Every structure is written in structure tokens, then in C-alpha cells.
Amino acid sequence: MTTFLHDGDLPADALAGASAVAVDSETMGLRLGRDPLCVVQLSAGDGDAHVVKLDRSTYDAPNLKRILTDPAVVKIFHFGRFDIAMFWRHLGVVTAPVYCTKIASKLARTYTDRHGLKDVSRELLGVDMSKAQQSSDWGQAKLTDEQVAYAASDVLHLHALRARLDEMLVREGRDHLARACFEFLPHRALLDDAGWEDADIFAHA
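User: That's the sequence. What structure does it adopt?
Assistant: C-alpha cells below.
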């Protein structure tokens, strides 16, 4: 396994030929209108990870944007709703097509309310992930080795999780519901960015 750290953007040939790419991001907090996007990490499922430290003065990352919008590449997230909204706000792109392992978990693993990446990875893959760097300073000029390793770990197992969750969704007859949710997810993220993040627009009230 190799983790590559890039400043500003992906290399033009990174992730070439991948049909699915795991994606995650690191920000200065969890508020769309307040907290900036700092880091985006990606993996083609080959054991390698690419960690991109963005230039927050321009967010000029054409190669990254190309991957996020490529219709031939499925972007795999865990709670993609937040990442996709952040990408729209800061990078100006709508990420699609997408797959969200958290949505898949909620549809397939109805026997539990534990759908965080750490819990799902432990049960389905036997992988115990550390979250020690989750709340660290991602806006600092130079990322620590621990931050880079943490960022990489968040995408290295998403391909395997997708495969396991797909098996469960098919078994439970809910794969069609999952696909519909994934298709709607970018629109849900745009609603969040537009101010409807706390509203259930489908509710009667």
C-alpha cells in the first residue's frame, strides 16, 4: 500500500482507468457555510490512496474535478451527502454518479443503529479503524504523517464495503431502493447547500 500526498490537485494520470473511486474529504468543521474544504482523499481500490491538500485561495483542481464529474466513474462515499455539498460549494462541481455506504448500511443492516464507518468496517470487514485524527487541524500549512495516514484509511476500505453491502442489499431485496437513493443524493446535497439541510421536504408538516 502506498499513500501519495499531492499539493493542489491530482496528477493528470492518477486513478486512470478506474471505474469506481472511493472519496472522502476533510474540512475545518461540519458547517457548510462556515467551514472550508481542506483535503480530498481518493482510492481506486488497489490499496493505494491519493491525498490532495487543496489550495484554499483558488480551489483550482481540474484533475480532481474531472474525476468527481466523470459519468463513467462511480464515486464511493460514506455519508456522501456532506462531501458532495462541500464539493459543490468550494469546487463548483456536482459529483455524480455516486454510491454511499452509509445509506446502503441503513437499508441493509436494519438490525442495528450503528452505521458509522468504524462500526460498519469492524462488523463487515473485520477492520478496526482509528478515528484519532478526525478532529485535528486540517487547515494547517503542512499535514502531519498521522493526518495523511488517517485520511488514507478512510478510503482504503470503501470498495470492499460496497461489495459486502451490495450482497446484503440484494439478499434483502432493497438494492433498487439503494440505487434510487444514490441517484437522488447529489440533489439532496444541493438542497443542503441552498439552506434546506434541516428540513424534511417530504414531510407533511
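The mean pLDDT is 96.
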